Amino acid sequence: MDQRLADLLELLELEQLxxxxxRGESRDIGSPQVFGGQVLGQALSxxxxxxxxxxxxxxxxxxxxxxxxxxxPIVYQVDRSLDGHSFSNRRVVAIQHGQQIFxxxxxxxxxxxxxxxQIDMPQVPAPEALPDYVGPPxxxxxxxxxxxxxxxxxxxxxxxxxxxxxxxxHPRPEPPVRQIWFxxxxxLPEGEMLHRRLLAxxxxxxxxxxxxxxxxxxxxxxxxxLASIDHAMWFHRPLRVDDWLxxxxxxPSASGARGFTTASIFSRDGRLLASAAQEGLVRVVKER
Length: 288
What we know:
Blueprint: H1 3-12, E1 15-18, E2 21-24, H2 36-48, E3 55-64, E4 74-83, E5 87-96, E6 99-110, H3 138-142, H4 146-153, E7 158-162, E8 177-184, H5 192-202, E9 224-235, E10 245-255, E11 258-267, E12 272-284
Antiparallel strand pairs: 1-2, 2-4, 3-6, 3-9, 4-5, 5-6, 7-8, 8-10, 9-12, 10-11, 11-12
Helix pairs in contact: 2-5
């Protein structure tokens, strides 16, 4: 297995301290705080560890309360709210330095048949027709703050190919729409919960930044502060993150120093696999 993927899988595996109590390590990927996708994936691991039988997560709703410290582990406390005939519900609280930094509710369901319909996938170029996303050009990257530079230079366990690549040299207002193909850098083991945890992890990339597109700016600018407030996901159909997936993102609104984004995640053959929504802080400050 590719070492980047092996490291990510290790990151999402938690140490069990006691019944309903787990601990996970943190990684510094260059973001101002612990990457939100890491906390989502670890919290889902903690919740899933307490659910028995053939039940798979179908939705999660999370709030980011405080900045996570990349240099300290995170403790996850799970409340077993419900184990019913078809559904299980869990509430997870993430704690660092004695304070809640995150909480999440997740629902798990036994597989069953029912009505089936979906929206159509957008018409976009195939991933083979697009280059890998590599971030800003080297000369611009060299002038960025060290933390932001590390964010772009960090080896990623996922490949991204953007239908609308950003213009880092001449940013201009654009429609609040972004489509991105992505997949893991290598093959992964079987397991629906494994792939849904990994999708939760990668879903935090590019989502909130889409709310800055109509304003001709992005998180790379020193005057723009972005931070996730909440994150929700719904898993509709079986998926694999080592196949190409299309992340179709839009931002219906930005107001009150908050941006709101929604997204649909499709397989390359057009099946709607999952949906996501996020609201976050989008604040303009004086240049430091």
